[in-house]
Design brief:
The protein is built from 17 helices and 22 strands. It has 485 residues and is an alpha+beta fold. The protein has one domain: Glycosyltransferase, CATH 1.50.10.140. 41% of the residues are buried. InterPro entries: DUF3131.
Length: 485
Amino acid sequence: MNKNNLKIALAWLTGLGIAGILILFINNSAPSVAEPAAANDSPSLLQMLKTGSTSGRNDTFCALTTGPDNSCLGSPQALCSKDLEMAKIAWKYFENNYNPTTGLYNAADKYQSTTMWDTGSALAATITAHDLGLIDEKTFDERIQAMFKILTTMELFNKEAPNKVYHTGTGAMVDYRNQPAPDGIGVSILDLARIVSWLNTLSCMHPKYAYPSKKVLERWDMTRLIKDGQMFGLYRDPASKEKAIVVAQEGRLGYEQYAGKIFRELGYDQQISATYNNKFRAVTNIYDVPIAYDSRDPRDLGAYNYVVTESYAMDVVENGLDAENQPLLANIYEVQKRRWQDTGIVTAVSEDNLDQKPYFLYNTIFTAGLPWNATTDKGVRYDNLRTVSVKAALSLAILFPEDPYSKELAYTVGTAYDPERGWYSGIYENGGGYNKAITANTNGIIMSLLLYKKYGEFYPVCKRCERGIKSQVIAAKTCDACATE
């Protein structure tokens, strides 16, 4: 190697050495790019994407899209495999009878008609189906949103409140024959109470629906429907050429208190309707068991008092057990048990659809002065068509699980279903086989019983959670205030 090449090599080495020293100096004196420039700075989105890290952040969709904290509902009771099997059978009815165009369910199998009562039963079933995992969150929300769409846009009777009947395919007002009724046929305040009860439970278990529920109620004009501590329905006078609207007191002992308590929770004065100890209560003895009934004369008001299982059972399941309804429900259970002990006939009576004429019957403990009277709403007796009501039998069984008669009830109706259609309404007492009428009400009540078994009484639980419909329909007026006026 000559001297010139040696000098060039030494120069390159010297330059590289100086460059290395400069790079080392710069790295030691500049802030590290791996650390935030200031202690309060968060990592940039770009940095998190590069590293795959979200350290220090909790706003991922895994956390954000979970449902509400329902721990306030208490410790749920586990359901057994038989419970879930029963729920699946009941839910089959609602899968078969859903109308996606309107969001409404048929009140009877494959018959496109419904009431607000049956819509309440369908809502109960939908809430339960989601809670038990029979439908996922998306299906649940799609059905609830569709229901709210119809409830907030449906035509109201006389622009006051929902009509008694709607076509589930079109959402239009119809009569009880499911024929178009552009002017509507009237309003049932008891039916409204049923859907209010389940809108409240929906708002409790899924608080995002509390405001839509409130808006549904605010559409209704309750001026003529609740007054003087009682509830009133509307109907058109068939004898009037002008089809004049008649305002008539609605509700008799049993259903009246079930509904009255629900409206009392909204702040309405229900000093008569919400208590069983009102001036219309009377008592009769059947099998030495005191049975309360309504003393109002059907000839004056055009409505009978049907003493049945359903109203008392629903009052406890939804409104809660209290000092008034506890002995009444116990007597409803006991008198039916004693009839079974005396006659050998398994007894659990309620009103139900029938699979034959007259297609709807009130199977009662007491009506129109007669025990065990099976009658139409016109007072025509059909004692040969008495049935063991599936919804009544299962309601009593779940409310009195320790009594041996409950096992007899549940066992008797345990096979009264079609696995592809849902639970039947009942079994004929006289050996006539199953009453194969299948309805939203029977299957909805069965679903709600399972939700009750899991969580307990709905209104008390939701009040403990401080959840439900926050209604501002009218100012609250308590019965204490009413009494001092």
